[in-house]
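Model: Ready when you are.
Researcher: Fold this.
Model:
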Amino acid sequence: MMEMSVFPSRLRAWGNFLSDEDGWTSSLNSAFDRIGFTEEYVREASKSPPRTQAVKDRVWGMIEFDSSAAALVNCPLLQRLRSVKQLGFSSFTYPSADHSRFVHSMGVYEVVGRLLQEFETTKTLQSSLGTAKLQAASFDNAEKDYLRYAAILHDIGHGPFSHASERYFQIHDEMEMDSEEERAESGMLHCMIGPFTIGKFKHKFHHYYKGFDDGRSSILPTGKAPISEMLAVALLVSDRFRSYYDVTIGSRDAHGLHDVYYISALILGDRITKGDFALPSILSGSIDADKIDYMQRDADACRISLGLDIPRVFMRAGVYDINKSRDPFASGLSGLDDIDTVRIFVIDQHGGDTFVEMGNSRLSLYRRVYQHPFTRNVEGHYFALLNEAGKYNVEFRDLLKIWSTPEDCLIEALCQHPVSHVSGMSWAIRRRQMPKKAAIIGNSVIRPVLGDVAVREKSCPVWQQVGGMVKAEVSEVVEIIDDVDEVINPIMQHCELIYRKLEGAGTTSDQLPAGSAPETLRIIPCPETNDAMLKQARVLTVSKDVIASEFRHASYTDAGHLPHQTTVLLTDSKWREIALLACQRAFIDIVRAHPKRRHPVPFRYTYSEPQGNSNEKRERTTGFSVDLLMWVLPVLDTAFSSRACHANLAQLEEFQGKLALVGYYDDLPFLFPYQGDEAKIDCILERCGAYSGEQEWRIDRHHIRVFLSQFPYSLRGEMVDLLMNIEMFGRSEIEGGVVSLLLQLQQEVGNRILAVPFTPSSGHLVRLFINKLFENNSSIEVHSGLRNAVLEPRSQEPIVFVDDHVSSGTQAAKQIKAICGMLGADEKDSNIFCQPLDGDALQKLRERDIYFVFYGASVDGEEMIKKACDEAGMRFAGLRSRKKFDELQFDASPNLEQFLAKVGRGLMLGARRRDFPEEAIKNSLTAVDDRVVGYGNKRGVTVTPFNVPTSTYTALWCPGWYRPDSKYLEHDDQVSGRLPWLPLFLRTGQFRNLVIF
């Protein structure tokens, strides 16, 4: 045997600590007595002659045990496992899956024996070839015995229903270090193991066993050992078991240590000698005896065909000694500075194919058996049952008491419990009458509130980047529900609220469940899959002539990333529809209250700027950010959940309609999507479908429905009427109108006029419309840029600025100031692109008459332009327009007006907060109030094919945030109380204010 590892000696220190602790030995011996492992049994065992034994197994056929192994199999510690089901509550789903941990332990023993035999065959084969680059090694007899005994004993720490009981104690352990006050407030109970709390027991174990500089290999388990393994080791290092081992097998006391410490180290997946990584890998590795048996046995019991070729795993498997300093295959083995030779377990290349098969088979078993929804349902019910029973009887909170009780006896004791609801929950398990699924919560059934419209898959790189980020955020939102109590309480509150709302809406008693709240409401979290993380394997290539010293890591499917992992809400069958609606609402509330931070995503926005009189363009780029949330608001798909949970979809929709009527969704209106007249949607699309805004912003039927879904139910009908009254200026209308106005103006002036775009965006598009029409007109000359026009020799000819519209005139006034280089730092605006004129060009501009020709205009807009020209020293000569915006308004009802103003105020404050310092916002709140329903509060309803006048209702074209409540503090930076707003249109320059959930 190689030099001894530190792990066995640490286990001796752990055992000594336990035996010295008051109350531990007596508690453990009492548990031993309850399973028949008494002092008398140990004495009688010393009198029995050793004998071999053979049993017939369903999976492996005849299994033969020598006298030592037979003594362990016949020990009450192993015989107790006959009453522990290998798959826990999976027999509720697969009735034939009632095999026990006892037969599994015997199967692991057989697999270990076959592997050890194959190692000898491989070594003999290598010797016959004589040309191997690596020398096959072997174990001595003591090491083989330790491994075989560990195989038999590795599961003795499991309690009734296997992992179900252990998860109960594990959850309580997570709060074990909290204060008594915090524990009392949370309702969590202290769970014990003898005289220790679970937390103290595990803490002391890690202190004595893992609290050292252990130099462990990174390919072996490094996390905290499960409670079942800690208990198994505590049983093995006890005085009683060591006495039984001595009288039936006899300890070798290698290096002065009892055999049980070596066996225990192997059960924990650790080395018993410094350089030997092979022994622990055989029992706890990537392809180990435990997996080989339970996958075959579980699949056979559930009648699931896996198609595994296990003999190929055994074939030519071997154990090899490699030199750490010379061999690169020792990479990944850490903490071995004082060791030259290490021993590893490898499988042959032919077995490598089966390695991949095992990964896929393991994934199938996790999907179909270990994480079956009904099995998780029963386990969750059992967890709640133990928690309730533990409130009245400490025995149900003592791991040793639970461990020493057979499964049938435990359920019977719970069924006879004097507290009625505890016994009722127990009978529900016995009768297989579990709570029903009410909601499915997972990545596949959560969508962002507005992202399905705002984040469209387009060719535009900006949209693709935003879309990818939002999808990533959606996939993480379920992590918020780690604290089950934090989720259950809001759901229960909304169940009660919905019940009262439905009663008030006239819902009949036969449609409502009895009582005002469900008796059972439970969350079954997405299952933990750390044990499903599959390690890499080292595969040895074997050829006819040589064993090549080449290792590779075979790929292995990770069952921890199942695509359909979900969290499930359970409740009484008559409460399913109400619980689903409550869950949808509660999750929104939980995430909104969760701390959030704004996540700026940088984009580079490129646009074309015309140059001179030619058709050449110069690419200009400006940088800006789009605000995204780190958390996506989780809108649950109620239709999907109702189908998956077999709820009454018709009743669900009826309840939603009634709740909408009584205002339940008014503060979160998108939870009740718009379901109005499709003919009206088509009419709106016909009026607005030609819109093509910034960053390829388009409008379709779904977008219109989502936009309307942001309005309270009572306002949606009137908002549809508003949209049906939108005045959409078509391209041909704008082109014809501007051309007609230019011709009239030229006749009035009686001289040649020079037309130039007022803005590089919409003004440039209008110039493109009219350019071809005036190519041969000597009286009207169209220029692509202002500088070239004013620097022409004929300096007295009027300049005519053309554009599609001017509404409030605010932007137009800034544009005029920008042309003259007069725009102040506090007047900056992302929509102003024009380079200022200077010197001779500016002087020549001020010497000319300046006209403005817009297709649409307002009186205020004209006044603002005139005032700005006066301040800039420009000779304003007049403004011509075809449409008067002052005549195109919508008279909204007080309720709709109030809602639109509330949204508009939030959007304007958000936009100003981005562009101005806080002091500037404080001094300009009047400007915000003047823009809540369009600039100048014009209540406009006009749109062009490529932009929106600012006089149009702000909520129609501005993205951002708003608060659904009446309070909106201009300096409030709390994101949690706000909701995103997705406009129907998107005004030029507003993409930078877009907020995606």
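Researcher: Now this one.
Model:
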Amino acid sequence: MGANHIIINMNGVYKGFVFTLLLIALVTLGAKDVPAAVGDDLKFRGTVQDVNGSRLNNSLINITIWEMSGTGPQLIGSNSTYSNESGGFNFTNVTGNVSWLYQVVVTYTNQTTGVVDYVGPSTPQFPYSAFVPPPLETNIDFYLRPAGTINITAINSTGDNISFWYQVKDIKLGYTIASNFGSSNYVQEKIIYVPRDRNYSIMVNANQSVPVSFEWNNFSATSDYDVDSLSKYNVTNHTLHKQFNCTDLPVQIYGYVNATGIDGWDDFAIVTYLLEPGSMVYLGAKFPYNMSFGPEIHNSSDSYNLTSGFYNITLPSSTEATNALLFAAAKNGSDYYGGFRNISLNSSQEINFTMYGLLGNETNITVQDAGNNSVDKNISTKKQAFNLVNATTNATLENVNAHMEIKVDYSNSSLYNCTEFTFMTDLNGENGTFYIPLINATGIKEINVYSMDYVPRRVGTRTADEIQANNNITMSAFIKDGGIDPNYPISKSNLKAFVYMSNSTCSIPYPQYISAGEDPCLIAGDVTMDMFNPLPAIIGGGKVDFSVKMPSTGIEVKYINVDFLASGPPDAKFDRAQTESTAGDLFSAALRFGSMGPTIYDYVLIGMPYTEGNTSQTGLDEAEVNMSIPLFYDENWNVIWNTDTDGINGTNLAGNHSHYETYYDEWETLMNGTTCTRTAITDASQINATHPCYIDTSRNLIWVRIPHFDGNSIRPAGGVITATPQNGGVTPGGGGGTAPEKMPSVSHRFDKIEPGAAVSMSINKTGLDFTQIQVEVKNRANDVRLTITKLATQPASVVHNVTGRVYQYVEIDRSDNINDTNIQTASIKFKVNNTWISGNNIDKNNVYLNRYANNQWNRLSTTMVSEDANYTYYSTVTPGFSVFVITGEAAAAQVCTPGAKQCVGDDLQECKSDGSAWETTETCQYGCDPTNFVCYSELQPVCTLDTKRCTGDNLEQCSSDGMQWTVSETCTYGCNSTTLTCKSAPEDYAWLLYLAVIVVIIVIIVGAVIAKKKL
């Protein structure tokens, strides 16, 4: 098989060079802005020690000199010397050139066994500028680690040694530590010395063979063993003898490309990528197209049947199996489809693809055509673009050197039948846009970006919809003059940097001093950032802690066991606007938590100052302080987890946000809260994952250990000691009485707000009952800050009283770069305490948010959305921001019991929920049941058969069907309702009247006669 059939483009897999640029940024971050003389020779001195600080004499220090070419760094010379009896060395005339790169390799060989026992760190090449900050003399203490040896050879089908290119990567570092890929020279054997505490991937591309790889992760083995039939490990001298069998083994891959509803394709092809150890896929490492062509195989082309979707292709492999990622790219009409499968090319096999739509825009994948080396094959597909944008200007970066790693998860066997893998791609002095083939069924799991001049950036999980809505990745510059945040500039001269040894006695908040002026832990620093040169700590190889401190506030961030080489420098974003407080607002930590950079350390210690309470100063009661983390944010500072509503279960946190999986138990401890210990920390084990908080009462600092920087806020909590009023109750400096209460307030900054993409801030502040604000703008607004403050009373600027009973006054203050006319919509969510509602006889449906604007109160349309045992929750929409007040209307007096029912004639009525009135719910066709308070379903009988009743003078009788009363008799003398009969005619008693009249007359006459006789 000819070599031209199987050469895979490995150019560009130079993450080491990208990291070189990244490390330049760290070096120049602290360098004085004083130019060095161009081409001055470099002076280079230092010592060689083991990890315990014991000096190593007769160690070889080799400085190799490199020049950058189109295929990566090329070796052009070297200087070497040996350390003396005390481990010291000194170079005085290393030739300097501003365009050259320099790499320092240090090894210690056991003079008795001839084995390399110790080796320095695996570093990339550094540019000349990294060594030239004045003075032009670099002093480095190398701390060598126990060494392992990797011995690489390759054979063909007859067992003969053959020449090859090679590439060795430190898997954790991610970049190449030894390579001759793309050079004009092949080797037949390569011996590489590496630190034993790492894992490595080894790739070999033998002449006229396909690249093959092997992952080595067992330098910790305690006995000799055979790795495979050709390779073995010798534990005595810690040597891996890896021999690759590069015997040609072409394999046929065939199967179908299928998609729901698609009966045929306009075009499709299979693109084959090399799958490196760790499931890494460099987008430039593609197999040539049409590998079936040529007499070595069967002198015919790969076949693709557009009607059936069947394909049959041949791929090169070897006895040392090659792993590959297959991407099927297909087109049907104007639609593009794709699918992924990972395979081991150890035999011919059937591989079928389930196809999905692709994200992005139409483009080509260009592959070398094995059938015609003079032309390339362009395969039509779609790729999704991602833009690296400047955090300050929101403009796409230009002239970028960056390395991107994009992790996707296609491991669902019922959907994708692939694996979780990571795309790698580079930008080399280009526009800051890169392109990735992505199916539209899911998004990305994680993106890591490493770039010169910018903080390493991690982007969390994004769905396909989220990617299409926003494909920008915001990059923040390293801390320089002017600061991270242009609104809150922090000069380098206001920050101090420290590099400490990392061990049990040094990795604590304050390492112990042996004597005054002597610190066995401090390696470098204790200087302002404008004077700090971290290069010695970066390439010295020792385990180090890196600390950044703001002396003006006392805030300190200490990264424990930093691995600078793994992903560049850490970034603590100091931002005066981001604060958290205890009761009484005692804390002004002014530290913005979360660089969103990849993990580069074991954990972080954060020191935050506090005010101690006493009789003359209101402040923290140090007797007991509790620390917790209540909020977690995404990379855009939107709340993604709130312990008040989402709980404190670490497993649930990790299940919803995979970035927290590694340390889910530690996050759970921090969410749940922990009482800060007061015992002085003298050993790193005292502040641990289980007890992550320490209060230093002598320095008034609280220290918290967190697993890594990721968007979160820390909530300290403790009692408050209030100062005793002096001078007869008059507070010093005041006009009498006690000091005014500091009202709860929160602030949030949005880097930008795009039209059509609403942004929100969640509020979780004790005493402040606004819970969320969401804003959508008409035109883009940059660097927007909202500050929400509870007001104790109606402010003096408000001259009108509001209608209703007042619950809470709140003011929303906005920065000048957004005004009310640019607000498309703004919604506010708030809550009201149920105790206040019931205590003030408030109708829950008559709670309102009112806004003061145009010199009057404006009642906003307010909706009750939910309630729990403690609060009732509401939402509203506002046309702008100003002063607001939450009010409630008293419930009306009750005239009935809410929910009670009654019948009024044929009307069924129910008492309103507030008890204010009866309202008819139904007029009954067949009458209302006064017993059960329901409408009858049919006409009801009105009487019982043969019963009677009196209605006036009528005697009525119930009809035979009971449906009506009929008049049986009209009574002349009335109806007797007792006997239910007509009354009889009355008797004639007129004679009695006559008799009575006669008697009266007789009595009158007799009386008159008697009276006359007496006269």
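Researcher: Key takeaway?
Model: The first strand starts at residue 42 and ends at 50.
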